[in-house]
Specification:
The complex is a heterotrimer of chains A (294), B (160) and C (773). Chain A is of the alpha+beta class and 294 residues long. Helices cover 37% and strands 22% of the residues of chain A. In chain A, helix 11 runs antiparallel to helix 12. In chain B, helix 2 crosses helix 5. The chains are: A alpha+beta (294), B alpha+beta (160), C alpha+beta (773). Chains in contact: A-B, A-C, B-C.
Amino acid sequence: MLVFLPKSLEETFDTLEQWPGAQLLAGGTDFMVEVNFGHRRPEAVVCLRKVAELRQWRLDGDEVVLGAGVTFAELERPELAELLPGLAQAARTVGSPQIRNAGTIGGNLGTASPAGDSLPVLAALDGRIVTASRKGARSLSLEEFVVGPKRTALEPGELIAEVRLPARLGSQEFLKVGTRNAMVIAVANVALVADWHAEAVRCALGSVGPKVIRAGEAEEFISSRIDWAARALPDPGDMEQFAALVRAAARPIDDHRSTAAYRRHAVGICAQRALGRVLAGGSAQGQEGQAWVS
Amino acid sequence: MGELIDYTLRVNGREHDVAEAWLGESLLYVLRERLGLPGSKNACEQGECGSCSVLMDGELVCSCLVLAAGAVGAEIVTIEGLTPGDDELSDIQTAFLAEGGVQCGFCTPGFVVSVHDLLEHNPNPTELEVREAVSGNLCRCTGYGRILAAVQAVQQARQG
Amino acid sequence: MSIDLGVRRGRLGESVARPDGIPKVRGQIAFSSDMFAEGMLWGHVVRSPHPAARIRAIDVSGALKIPGVRAVLTFDDVPGRKTYGLDYPDQPVFAWDCVRYMGEAVAAVAADHPETARRAAAAVVVDYVPTEPLTDSTIAEDAEPVHPLGNVLHRQKVRSGDPDATGVAVVEGYYETGMQDQAPLGPESGLAVPAEDGGIDLYIATQWLHIDQEQMAACLALPLDKVRVHLAGVGGSFGAREDLSMHIQICLLALRTGRPVKISYSREESFLGHVHRHPAKMWYRHHADAEGRLVKLEAKIILDGGAYQSSSMAVVMNAACMSPGPYRMPNAVVEAVAVRTNNPPCGAMRGFGAVQTCFAHEAQMDKLADALGMDRVEIRLRNALKAGDALITGQVLTGATPVAEVLRTCTAAPMLAGDPAALAELELPGGAGRTAERGRVRRGVGYGLAIKNLMYGGGFDDYSTARCRLEDGVATITCACAEVGQGFVTLAQQITREVLGVDNVVLNPAATVGIGSAGSTSASRQTWMSGGAVQAACLAVRERALALVSARHGIAPEGLEIVDGRIVSFDGEVDVAVAEAALGEVLEETVDYHHAPTEELDADGQGNAFVSFAYSAHRAVVDVDVDLGLVRVVDITTSQDVGRVLNPVQLVGQIEGGTAQGLGLAVMEEIVLDHGVVRNPSFTDYIIPTTLDMPPVHIAALIEEPEPGSPMGAKGAGEPPMISSVAAVVAAIRMATGLELNRAPVRPQDIALAGTGLSGGSMTSPNDVEVSK
C-alpha cells in the first residue's frame, strides 16, 4: 500500500521511518490541487485523518491546545470561537463551507502561503507551533516555523502536532480584503490583538510579504499611546501615524490579484479599523454575526 | 505511473472495490471513472466551485480534494445516494425543478448535496444563512435567484 | 416524496417544467464530460506556453516511449485543411511554424489513463524561439503582422447624416472593458468513436453542430456524411462553444488509434482553450443641444480580437451599429475595428459587441445629463427610440420598440434595497472579511439602458431546420438546436402541444445525422429561429391532419378550424383531436425556417442589416467602502422588452443569469494578461459571483408588445440582461464615489487609489485617436 492511514502518532512515525519521502496529508485542500493539476506526483502518502490525537483540542490552563488536524469549521463553532475569537473570524473567511470542513490549522501552517488566513492570527497571538517526531517535540514561533513563502522549518520525519494559543486573550480582530464576498484568496489580511493585561497591541499582516509580518514599530508606537486604563486613544491623530507605520512595515508586491500600492494602502486601513474596534469595545469576543456599529 | 493500489470505499451504503488505481486519484475521479457514479461533477478540480460536493462522514466536502485511497473507512454519500429511488425525487430535487433552479444542470448535483447538508444542520436558516452555506457552490446560468427560491420552498414545505 | 412532473405538461405562456430536469437533479444526465465508451483512451492536448514564438522543431519521441501511450499527433497528421475558423479558417488545428497565443494547440496524445496522457503531453518537446508578442491593440493595425492575413480582422464604419454637425453640449470620454470569460461550469469535453464506415462519431458539448461538422470534414478530409456530430449534455455555453475546441484533434486521435478517445479539459485548459469576450478601447464624443437632444456621435472602438478571427466580424458589426445605444442619433461618425494581436483569441460571448459599447454610451449619457444639469433618466427618455425612428445605419424600426416604457417601468419600481443601517455585517462590502466601517460606506444608484440586435443579419441567410412526426398520438420533434441550459427543449414541447394539442411530445437527440442545421445557440436567436422551425413543422403536420379530416368527412378544409388541439367543423359535426385524426397515418414534415431577409451594410454602414431588436434597462444599487474600494451590489431591478412571455420561470432564469454575468463584468471578472500570458486561468483567480455577491434581481416589468415577424411574437431574451446590467452597476459605483471610473471591471484600487496615480490601470486614453470621417 502506498497510501497509509495510521491510527496513532506512533504508527505515523513508524510509517514515516519506512517511507521517509512520504507526503503528509490532512484535509487535502492544498495538496490535492497540486496533484489534480499534475504539479505533484506523490509516491507515498501518509493520510492523517484517523490520527485521533491530531484532531482533538483541549484547554490547558489558559492555553488552548489545538491538534493540527482541527478544521476551520471546528474553529468557527461556538466553543472554540469563544476561546479564540480572532481565529474564528479568520476561519470563517477561508475558502468555502466545503473547504472549511476539510482544511486544517496544521495544513494552513504546512502550506505556509503568504496569504494563509490563520497565520496572521497565530502571529498576533504569539502562538507556538509544536512539532513532533521520533526524536521528540519542538516548539517554534510562527516566525521560526515559516521560513519563507511556502517553506517551513519542518524536518524529515517531523509533523505539525499542535498549535498552542492563549485563550480569550484581550480583544481580537481579523480583517481580510478580497475582491469577492466569498471563496477568495486574501489580497491583504490583518490580525490585531489588544492584550489588556500586558498593555500591548500586536498587529500582524498577511499577503503583503513573503511571510506574515509583525508590524513591530507600529505596535510599539501605538502601545505607548493608548490609555490602557480607559482602553482609549487620547490623541485620535495617532491613528494615522499607526496606519502609516503599518504601511511602512508591509513589503507587498504587484501580482495578478492586486498591486503593491493597493495592498499597502489596504493594510493601513484595516489595521486602523481593527484598532478602532478594539478600543471601542465592539470587537469580537466569541460572538459571531454580531453587527458592528461604529 | 508508479505502483497501482487496491482499496475499498464505502459509498452510498455499499462497499465498492477499487483495483489497480493510481494512488493520486481524487475521490471525484474514482467516483466518476471507476465506480460508475458520475453525478458529482468536475468543473474545476481545485475546490473552487462545489460541483463535486459529497458528504464524507456527514460533512460537506469537495470530492476533488479528497484523496480517494485516503477515504477508506469513511461513509461517503453522493448525489446518487440522496436520490430516493428509481422513480422518486427528494423534496429538494423537486423544488429545484419546480422553481426553475435548473438550467444547464452542471452545478445542480453539488447544490442538492449542499442544500441537503445545510438543512440537516440548520432546518430553518435565514436567507443570509442559506447564501453563506451555499457560497461554495458556483452557478453560471441562473444567477442563484431560482435556486434560493427552491431552498425557501423546501423550508416552507418542511415547516408547514 | 414521489412526484410525477410529467403531469405538468403545458403550453405556451406557462411555467412548464423542463423535460431534462429530472435526470439533471438526479445527477443522471450525461454531460460531455460524463461520456464513456468501452476501450476508450484519454486524450490530452499539448499547448504553447508562449504568446508568440517560432517553432523550430517538435520532438514527440519521448512521449511515444511512455508505456500506455497510443498516439502522438502533430500538424503533419492533419489529412485535410490544416486550419479552421468561423468567419474564415485561419486557426491551425496544430501549429506548425509558429504559435500566436498562449495555449495554442501544438500536438495531441492519446493514452490508457488520463494521468499517462498528461505525462505524455509534458514529454512532447517543442523547440520554441519566443518572439516579442504584440499585445497592444491600439498599435496593432500598423504593427508587424501577426499572421499572413494581416492584423485587421474586420472594420465597420457607420456614417450617417452630417459629419460636421455639432451641438452646444459636447462630452467626451475614453472607456475600457476588460477580457471577460464565459466560464461555463462544464469543461470542454468530447468522446470520438471511430466508425466501421471509416467515419467518426463525435459526442460533444457545442453550440452549432453543423458548422462544427463542416469544419471537421474539411480538416479530416472526410465527406460530410462520414462526420457525425452528436450533442452531449452541455454545461453552459454563453458563446464559449461557438468555435471548435478539441473536435478535430480528438477525431484524429480516434481515427489513428482505432479506439474511442475522450478528452476533458481541466479548468485551466478550458480558460486557454476557448475564445473570450473582446476587450474594448472606446473613444466617444457626444454632441447634444441645450435641451439634451442628441445631435451627433463620434466614436472609435478598437476590439482586441487576439490571435485568430473567430467571429470577430459579427462583434465588430454589432459594436458599430449599436454604438449610440437605444437613442435617436441624427448624425454619426463611427468606426469599429477588431485587430489581431498575440493575446488570446476572442469571439462570441453573450451580448457580443453591444456589452462593450453599452458601457460607453451609458457613461456618456450620464455625463451629458450632468453637463446640462438634466436628470439622468430624463435625458434618456427624451432621446429614447420609438417605432418609426431610424438607427444610425438608416434602418427604420418597424418592430416593437418600447424603449421608454422599459426605462420608465424600471425607474418607477420601488427601491427595495434595505436600509444600510439594518444590514448585517455579512451584507456589507467585504462580507465575511469584516473590513467595512459603516461610516465609510456610501450608497449609489445607477441606470443602464441597452439595445441589442437579435439574431444574425448583414445579409446572412440564417435558418433553422426542424422535423415533426406525428404517429400513434405521439409527436416527435427532431431539431439540431443545441440545448445549453437555456430551456429550448422545454419550449419545443410547449410549441408542439400548442399547435398539435398532443400531450406526448418526444424530442430526438440533437445530431447532424438526418436533419439539417438549426444554426447556433447564440445571438438570442433560438426561440425565434428553432422555435419558428418547430412551429412551422408542427403547423405543416397539422395542415396534413386537417386535410385528412377534410377528405374523410367530405368537408372543405375551409370549413374546419383547430381549437385547442382539436379539429372541429363549424357545424359541430366533426370534432376530433389532431392526434386522433392522424391515427393510422404517419405525418411527417421537415421545414427550414428563415427569417425575413436582411441587407449587407454598405461602406458607410448603411442598410437594413438586422431582423429585430430588444431593449432592457437595469437599475443597480451599490454600497461602496470608499477607503478600500470594495463594492457590494445590494439590489438590481430590471425591465425587459420580451415580445411575449413563453415560459415565465425560464425567462426569469435568463434575466437573473444574464444579470449575474453583467455584475461579474462590472466588479470582478477579467482575464488578466501580462504581455500575452494569461495570469489567472482558474476559478481561484478568475472570479465569478457567488451567492454572497449576487443580490436579489427584481423584475419590474416584462414588456409584452408582440414582435411582428417573430413566429410566436416573442423576442430572444438571453443577451439584453447581460448588457444594461454592467452599465448600471458601474454607474451606481460612480454615484457612490464621485469618481469617473471609465473601466469595467472596476477594481478596488480604481476606487481606493483614484487620483493618486497609483491605481495601476489604464484610466487615461493611451493616445490621441482621430475619429476618422
